[in-house]
TrEMBL record:
SUPFAM superfamilies: alpha/beta-Hydrolases. Gene3D superfamilies: 1.10.260.130, alpha/beta hydrolase. The lineage of its organism: Bacteria, Bacillati, Actinomycetota, Actinomycetes, Kitasatosporales. InterPro entries: AB_hydrolase_fold (IPR029058), Lipase_secreted (IPR005152). Residues 1-26 form the signal peptide. It holds the Pfam family LIP. Keywords: Signal. PANTHER family: LIPASE 5 (PTHR34853:SF1), PTHR34853. The keyword Signal applies. This is Lipase.
Amino acid sequence: MKFLPRPATALALALVAVAPATNATAAAQPREESDRPYFYEPPAQLPAHNGDMIRSERSAFYLDALKVVPVKADVRRVMYRTTDRAGKPIAVTGTVLTPQTPHAGPRPLVAFAPGTQGLADKCAPSRQLPEGTEYEGLPVKNLLDQGFGVVVTDYEGLGTPGTHTYMTRAAQGRAVLDSLRAAQRLPGTGMPAEGPVAVYGYSQGGGASAAAAELAPTYAPELDLKGAVVGAPPADLDAVAANLDGSAYGAFFTYSLSGLGAAYDIDVDSYLNWHGKQVTADLRDNQCTTQALAKYPFLNSRFLTADGRPLTERLKRAPWKEVVADQRLGKRGPAVPVLLSHSRNDDVIPFRVGEQLGKDWCALGTKVKFSPNRVVGHILATAATSNEAAPWLKDRFAGRAAPSTC
């Protein structure tokens, strides 16, 4: 999960996220009534293999909503095949970005797993990047500046039909790995089909990057994965939920319930009162990150439930106890080196969560560089991860020995 820290809350409440619009260039096709642009409507028949490309189109990448600061790169919006938590084939969208500068040798490719965007279709990074409203634009640009190709997944249900399965470990990890396959199979990018790759993410993206690294040996063994950058990962959802509910970021706890409920076919509304149903529907259908923080600060789940008890209590009982346990990271060891970054002053995802994940991976034989910092607040620590990631990834792609703090 990606959240704004308390020092930035006042600023966040003053902002209103711009609802991104997409000008799809694909030919118009008859379809049922929907506000979703044609590009995001999956075909009736999906291709045969995970990572297979369904469609692509030219796009753009701006760092500002006025569109005066373009990022120089070849930008393609894509739709590709992946699988959901249960292994069902689905279509997801994303963005493939290739630097315009030449690169000696095979160009490395990094899968950027985005942090919390929201649940509404308009929040998809592939819609926000061309509108200049993607708040993780600078970390993406930093990777492009290193000469790396970058692919940014939208995850399941973000842009495409259905609810975004927010915080669902398997679905997020698979979407990240299949985005690498899709980017390698996209003609005209100059990235080789069997070239070196890595995964990168912070917060929700850190969890997705971690999940991808854990799943890679069995789900995508053919990828030449060189390493994983994992920033502030929500590795233990019990601990994260307890920290969020009733805080300035309480809306994101509600995001998690909607996302996990969709992934595991649980009717979240059955636990809610009228107000809770209204808030949950609004967060699911309308509010991106900044909008949610502005509209629902200090959201406490006990005011949303039919029985007046906080939803964190539900996490301790079936079916939620099993669902939360299924998202736990650290039960599987990545087969590649990991840079694990976390601030001791993280006010969203407790530092002990990232620290424990590092210990768990070390015990499983993974080479981990655990890199704590003291940056104040979750959002500000994003830059610390980004700045350290660039040289670390360069060393992995160069074949240098990875450092370890295990």
